[in-house]
Write a structure and sequence with these properties.
Elements: H1 21-43, H2 50-74, H3 80-102, H4 109-136
């Protein structure tokens, strides 16, 4: 991540699109969950369920990362192992945040900044790279088209 950012909500725009509709939809969901966490932290309201949001973020990230990694294996993406390590580091940070939260430590701006920055930077660099590799593979842009040809 380059430079220091002020933790704020992260807003999806088409600049982040990989032109893979299912993956783009998953990225939008990740933005939404991170924004839910941002709002809960800013409200300083434990009733909003910070731990539940972190649980949801971890679970959804694992689902999304599995989908991306399966796609990368399918297209013989040469940097799959490196990409998997980046995914693992993200999940480790979320798990650490949950542990800190359970120990009574607040979720601070540094964590929000990490989540926002990691997601944006990850999409704009490594995800765009595998998306370009996918596009060069000549496969349909919609992953579902592989299962429903001719539609």
């Amino acid at each position: 991540m380059t430079g220091k950012r002020l933790a704020t909500e992260v807003v999806w725009n088409d600049f982040y699109a990989l032109e893979l509709p299912e993956i783009d939809a998953q990225h939008q969901t990740l933005f939404s969950i991170i924004n839910d966490l941002w709002m809960a932290v800013m409200a300083k309201n434990e009733a909003i369920g910070i731990e539940a949001i972190l649980d949801r973020l971890e679970a959804y990230a694992l689902i999304h990362f599995s989908a991306e990694e399966a796609l990368m294996r399918d297209i013989n993406y040469p940097r799959l192992d490196e990409h998997k390590r980046a995914h693992q580091r993200f999940v480790e940070q979320v798990v650490a945040a949950k542990e800190h939260w359970r120990a009574g430590e607040p979720i601070g701006f540094a964590m929000l900044d990490f989540l926002n920055g990691w997601l944006v930077d990850h999409i704009l660099t490594v995800d765009k790279d595998y998306a370009a590799h996918y596009a060069r593979s000549g496969q349909p842009l919609s992953l579902l088209a592989q299962f429903f040809p001719g539609e």
